[in-house]
């Protein structure tokens, strides 16, 4: 009895110590006291609960969960459900936390709060939104602002990842967190300018809020603003302002924020800006995406995008095996996703294995018909790159859901025209027009849609352009029927019928408007003086009286004016007959025999030092056996020995200095440097 009394007294003192430490926030000392209590009574439920709480407050979630699992008989789910679920949540065992919450017999407010967080992490946004709405409706405490912030975060996630247009919750954006979440929701809707304004407001509110605390430094404020600046940079990137975005991204990285999720997203965005350029920087940045804990900070789509970019970076850096490994892993995780197979095909194309790439894409299209259209477009592109335009057309025509689209029709017609396969091009038009006729018949009996009429017109114009006037008649009649006032279509129809049925053409020509109704009131002067006029008629001034006589007098003087005589060459001799070929270039004249070589008998040759050469050695054309030299482009003209007549333009004037030839020889000498 005395021992029991002593134990009870000791336990009471220890409980007092636990209570005091708990109020002071000293959970390490409280834990020591709790352990002493458990030595006295190991199955004390309150002591075990206190131990779990102390371990949670100290961040020892694994140890706390181990205590709960060890004492399951004492610590039942009704007693410790929240603490167990919270430990599982903090250890990123989200599915286990959800089961623990759902298995609890009583759903307390604490469990409901944790339930909302768990649903958000599981990306079950609709259920999460309902949970937070219920909490806000049924709670009245100091945490209302935090719940509204979480609610706005759910709405932003729906807008970003599920492309759901968010409803107006009527939340007053009094804090920077609410402003930030509102901006994220606007980004999801593509309202980038509005989102940027919200982020600027969030930055201002954040600075105001933190500057009120004297203990907060400027560095602390910049660290808190990092996520807002990161979202601003993302908007800049979406707007095409990549240089500004890159600068802001790098500023955030220099701050070394502790949020590994933020760093991973920024690093990924920088990699997307670099693309296949600056791969060394991208390889450095990709390390930030591999940091510990990143997978628990980002959504599934964010993590998937990072993995896709890793595979692309491996391809750009010629790491073929790594690229194949990453893309195969991604394909196993998301078999229906397009990007992994497209990356694999791109890698095969880089390795010049185009046929294998097309085969890979064809297999994927067969296995996943829902995504076949996009895959077949890529296959067609590969076939065009190989020069197989006809095969590309066959692949495109196999995409049934796109056959009637104007873009597809235009592409096919262009490719068939390039291959000079006019019949196939006309067949493409016919199939598209028939689709619209069938579709419209099932929808309405009213006038044809603008797209339908546009296709008929394009088909008619194409047939007329390629001389298929007979085939164009039915299309033109359809167009004229839809719009009888269309004179251009009527003229085309008459032109087509003139080859097939002239009588019909005459009958239709009666529907043409008369020339009187077609005359246009055009101001000719204004038209001629317009900016685009190629000819402007000079306005004749009205002349009366003396001015008219004066002008007439000037006109008479102009008529009497004689034509000026052309200037003759200075060395012109009227006794000598002019050369009839004087207007031809020297090289084209019949007497041209190449450049006349100078006589340099006594000059030293260009051989070894001291040696000399004779003139005949320098000029091989002087030897009797050598053939006449052929004309060289750009060389001086030589006068034929067979003609004693010197053309007037090449006569040397009497008394002219004989220095011109020497100057020409010097020029020739300098010209040799180009050979």
UniProtKB/TrEMBL annotation:
Residue ranges, compositional bias (Basic residues): 558-568, 659-675
SMART domains in UniProt: TPR
Pfam families: SRP72, SRP_TPR_like, TPR_8
Cell location: Cytoplasm; Endoplasmic reticulum
Record's compositionally biased regions (Low complexity): 605-643
Domain of life: Eukaryota
Coiled coil: 94-149
Repeat (TPR) residue spans along the chain: 226-259
Family matches, as InterPro entries: Signal_recog_part_SRP72_RNA-bd, SRP72, SRP72_TPR-like, TPR-like_helical_dom_sf, TPR_rpt
Biological process, per Gene Ontology: SRP-dependent cotranslational protein targeting to membrane
GO CC term (a single one): signal recognition particle, endoplasmic reticulum targeting
Keywords on record: Acetylation, Coiled coil, Cytoplasm, Endoplasmic reticulum, Isopeptide bond, Phosphoprotein, Repeat, Ribonucleoprotein, Signal recognition particle, TPR repeat, Ubl conjugation
Residues covered by the Signal recognition particle SRP72 subunit RNA-binding domain: 538-594
Stated role: Component of the signal recognition particle (SRP) complex, a ribonucleoprotein complex that mediates the cotranslational targeting of secretory and membrane proteins to the endoplasmic reticulum (ER). The SRP complex interacts with the signal sequence in nascent secretory and membrane proteins and directs them to the membrane of the ER. The SRP complex targets the ribosome-nascent chain complex to the SRP receptor (SR), which is anchored in the ER, where SR compaction and GTPase rearrangement drive cotranslational protein translocation into the ER.
Family: Belongs to the SRP72 family.
Protein name as it appears in the record: Signal recognition particle subunit SRP72
Organism encoding this protein: Emberiza fucata
Taxonomy of the source species: Eukaryota, Metazoa, Chordata, Craniata, Vertebrata
């Amino acid at each position: 009895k005395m021992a029991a009394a002593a134990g009870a007294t000791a336990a009471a003192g220890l409980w007092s110590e636990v209570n005091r430490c708990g109020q002071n926030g000293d959970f390490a000392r409280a834990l020591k006291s709790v352990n002493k209590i458990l030595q006295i009574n190991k199955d004390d439920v309150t002591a075990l609960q206190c131990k779990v709480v102390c371990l949670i407050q100290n961040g020892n979630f694994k140890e706390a969960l181990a205590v709960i699992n060890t004492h399951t008989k004492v610590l039942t789910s009704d007693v410790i459900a929240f603490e167990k679920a919270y430990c599982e949540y903090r250890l990123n065992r989200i599915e286990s936390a959800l089961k623990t919450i759902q298995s609890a017999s009583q759903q307390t407010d604490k469990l409901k709060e944790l339930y909302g967080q768990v649903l958000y992490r599981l990306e079950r946004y609709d259920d999460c939104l309902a949970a937070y709405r219920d909490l806000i409706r049924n709670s009245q405490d100091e945490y209302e602002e935090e719940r509204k912030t979480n609610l706005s975060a759910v709405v932003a996630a729906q807008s970003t990842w599920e492309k759901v247009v968010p409803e107006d919750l009527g939340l007053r954006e009094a804090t920077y967190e609410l402003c930030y979440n509102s901006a994220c929701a606007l980004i999801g809707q593509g309202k980038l300018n509005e989102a940027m304004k919200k982020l600027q407001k969030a930055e201002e509110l954040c600075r105001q809020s933190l500057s009120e605390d004297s203990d907060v430094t400027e560095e602390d404020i910049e660290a808190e603003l990092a996520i807002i600046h990161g979202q601003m940079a993302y908007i800049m990137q979406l707007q095409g302002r990549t240089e500004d975005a890159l600068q802001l991204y790098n500023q955030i990285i220099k701050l070394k924020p502790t949020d590994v999720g933020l760093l991973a997203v920024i690093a990924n965005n920088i990699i997307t800006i670099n693309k296949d350029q600056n791969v060394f920087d991208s390889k450095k940045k990709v390390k930030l995406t591999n940091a510990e804990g990143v997978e628990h900070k980002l959504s599934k789509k964010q993590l998937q995008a990072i993995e896709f970019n890793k595979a692309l970076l491996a391809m750009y850096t010629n790491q073929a095996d790594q690229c194949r490994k990453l893309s195969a892993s991604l394909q196993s995780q998301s078999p229906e996703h397009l990007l992994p197979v497209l990356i694999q095909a791109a890698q095969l194309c880089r390795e010049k294995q185009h046929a294998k790439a097309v085969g890979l894409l064809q297999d994927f299209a067969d296995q996943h018909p829902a995504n076949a259209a996009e895959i077949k477009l890529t296959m067609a592109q590969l076939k065009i790159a190989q020069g197989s335009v006809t095969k590309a057309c066959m692949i495109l025509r196999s995409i049934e859901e796109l056959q009637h689209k104007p873009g597809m029709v235009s592409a096919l017609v262009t490719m068939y025209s390039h291959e000079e396969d006019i019949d196939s091009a006309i067949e493409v038009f016919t199939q598209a027009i028939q689709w619209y006729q069938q579709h419209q018949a099932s929808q309405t009996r009213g006038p044809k849609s603008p797209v339908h009429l546009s296709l008929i017109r394009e088909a008619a114009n194409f047939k007329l352009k390629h001389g298929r006037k007979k085939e164009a008649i039915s299309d033109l009649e359809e167009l004229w029927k839809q719009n009888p006032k269309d004179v251009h279509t009527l003229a085309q129809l008459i032109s087509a019928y003139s080859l097939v049925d002239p009588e019909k053409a005459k009958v239709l020509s009666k529907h043409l408007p008369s020339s009187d109704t077609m005359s246009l009131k055009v101001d000719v002067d204004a038209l001629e003086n317009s900016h685009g006029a190629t000819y402007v008629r000079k306005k004749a001034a009205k002349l009366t009286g003396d001015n008219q006589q004066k002008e007439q007098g000037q006109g008479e003087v102009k008529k009497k004016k004689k034509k000026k005589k052309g200037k003759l060459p200075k060395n012109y001799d009227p006794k000598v007959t002019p050369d009839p070929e004087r207007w031809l270039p020297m090289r084209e004249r019949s007497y041209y025999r190449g450049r006349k070589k100078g006589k340099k008998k006594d000059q030293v040759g260009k051989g070894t030092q001291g040696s000399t050469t004779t003139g005949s050695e320098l000029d091989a054309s002087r030897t009797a056996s050598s053939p006449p030299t052929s004309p060289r482009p750009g060389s001086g003209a030589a006068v034929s020995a067979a003609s004693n007549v010197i053309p007037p333009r090449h006569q040397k004037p009497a008394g002219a200095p004989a220095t011109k030839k020497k100057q020409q020889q010097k020029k020739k000498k300098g010209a040799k440097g180009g050979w």
